Every structure is written in structure tokens, then in C-alpha cells.
Amino acid sequence: MNITRPQLDEAVRRGLLQDGQADALWHYLDAASTETASLRTTHVLYYLGGLIAIGSMTVFMNMGWMLFGGWGLAGLSLAYALAGLLATERLLHRMKLRIPAGIVATFVVALTPLGVYGLQIATGTLAPERAYESYHRLIDWRWLWMELATLVVAAVMLWRYRLPFLVMPLALTLWYLSMDMVPFVFDTPDTDWAMRKFVSLWFGLLMTLLALWVDLRTRTADDPAFWLYLFGLLTFWSGLSLLRTDSQLDWFGYLCINVALLAIGTLLARRAFVVFGGLGVAVYLSQLTYEVFRESLLFPFVLTAVGFGIIGLGIVWQRQQARLDAWLRQHLPATWQDWLAQRR
């Protein structure tokens, strides 16, 4: 529920609040909202700057950095990490800015693979021909030490600072780890994508269940489960959607799973479930339309009608959402009903 200043002014006109109370309440809500992630301009700038800084030391690394050598890369990563830790302490404890502090702390975690990579190059345990820029593109079991170290650093940072954005590199690294361990654990070639799809599907399901467990145990507004939900659903839905089949029965099962995601998203008030469930329903309807009308001139017109039909379904869903929520919650245990009431 979003409260606006005009709503408070209307409450004053109706005698529900006094003018001074409305001002005090508005200032309190405005100050509190600055510590909650949203689409405020300042928050967009926070995340944009942070992601650029993180990307510069991770995704956009190039072969030119090998001029520093292994020890140089390790030392540079350590220096940046120490500066990031000092900045995190200042932002969090002195300036009371939790969102920028979380982004800078995540920058520290993102430096861990580079530091471990440098140590591996320096000690000769990793061939220098394996460029660091491949870490985010290629699946290779030799990245395991980098990923395990990142998980340890992320867990320590999360334990120390309790900042929700730190869950993001933790979830991402767990996904990387699950992919890189496939050829190592199952003794399959790197090109065995069928196995990777199944691993992605089951790993995503486990991460989503972990997010639900964290959600159940969390009573703060920081929402640490958000990133776990996002990466869990992304990996689960991607693995599920990439398991292509010609069986319409399998496609119907795919539809049922995505409809279930929509229902869970409504129940938990989690938009991520609704987004992926809605995408899945759209994929199913597009596939079905293609199979029925692919040799017909009506195909683009029917697909357009399907698109507008989905929009209409969204309108109906919005109008009936409160009734659906009430019906779903009535069939849950009392403890779950209390928890959902608190979340809302």
C-alpha cells in the first residue's frame, strides 16, 4: 500500500487527522522510504552507479589487466576491497545510508573472484590463458575455487552487515556454482546442455524454497528474500522453458506450472512469481497458436488477439484479486494467514 501526501491532506479535511499529525506522519514515512528500495531518482542513481562499478571489476574485465600479473591482480583487488569496507562502515554507521552501503559492500564481494583468480595465476594453479573475462561467460569446473571463496566472503559480509543487496552476489554465485559443477559431479562433457537444463530447473526450485524459508523467518522491511526469489525463479523458469518438447501434454503441464506461479504470486504478494508465470502463460499460448495457425494467414491476427486477451485477463485479475486473495488465504493454516497479513 502506497500513501501519498494528497491522501493525508484528504484525511485532515475529513477530520481523521490533525494538520500537525499529517505533517509529522508524512515526514516519518518520507524518511523511512529512503531506506527502502524503490524507483526514487536517488535509488536509481545508487544502483546505476553501483552496478557500473561492480561491472567494471567483473563483467568488463579484459586481457589488458593481465599486465598486472597474478600478484598485481590480487593486490589490486585487496586494496579496492579494503577501501570498499571503509566506505561501507562510513555509509552504514556514520551516514545511516543503508542502500548505498549495501551496494558498496556488494562491490567488495564482487572483487573476490578477481582476487582468487590473481592468486591462482600467481601460484600456477590456473593457466594464464584462461582469461578472467571468461568467468561470467563460460562454464568451467576450474572456477570452483573462485566461487567457493565468493560464497564465504558473501556469507561473512551478510552476517556482519545484514544488508539485503548482499544476497544478490550470493544467489548469483550459487547459480554459477551449480552450473560449473555439472561436468565435475556428473562426469558429463561441457556440451551436455540437457543435463544443465535439469540442474538449472531443480537448483532454481531449491533456491525459491530457500527464499520462502527466509521470507517466513524475516520480520524486517529490508526484504532479504527478494534476490533469492528473483534468481531462483529465473533459473527455475529458464530451465523449465528450455526443456522443449513436441508433446501437447507436456506443454499443458508447462501451462499448469505457470498458472501455479501466478496463484502463488497473488498469495504471497510477490510480483516475481506473477511476472514469470505470466511470461510462461504467454509462451504457451503463443506456441499453441503457432501450432494451430502456422500455415494460415490468420496467424499474426490470432496472435494479436491472444496478446490483447492476456491484457483483458490482467484487467479481470486486478478486479478480482482481492476476492481471489481472500479465497486462497481461507484454505491456509492460521499461522500462514497471520504471516501473510503481516507481509501485506
Automatic annotation (TrEMBL):
UniProt keyword terms in alphabetical order: Membrane, Transmembrane, Transmembrane helix
Sequence intervals crossing the membrane: 44-62, 68-87, 99-122, 142-159, 166-186, 198-214, 226-245, 251-268, 273-290, 296-317
Domain of life: Bacteria
Protein name, per record: Membrane protein DUF2157
Organism this protein belongs to: Sphaerotilus mobilis
